[in-house]
Amino acid sequence: MIFEIISLIALFIFAILAFYIYRTLISLQHTLHKVDVLTYELSVKMRKMDSTIQSIANFGDVVEEESLRFRENYLHEKRFSRERLNSEESSDALTDLLLASLKVGANYLRRK
Q: Fewest beta carbons within 10 Å, which of 3, 6, 34, 93?
């Protein structure tokens, strides 16, 4: 009789533990599904941002090349005592850079 009662108590405890393990696994499954959806959405957004980041990188390369060109012109003129940079040329180049940055910004905002 005692053996039967102990067996029933052990079976009852096992059933309770199995139930809680089952509920924990179900909640874990739901959480993992939510994480999967979130990860997918983030990867889609990152793919959309990739073109914007690439255009910003290209713009940075253009600005770097222009600044190097300006520096070389300045050093060349200073070294050989030639005439100074024409302020009109430098303002035209700065205007071009400003217009290019505005175009990049407009394209970025249009994509959103």
A: 3
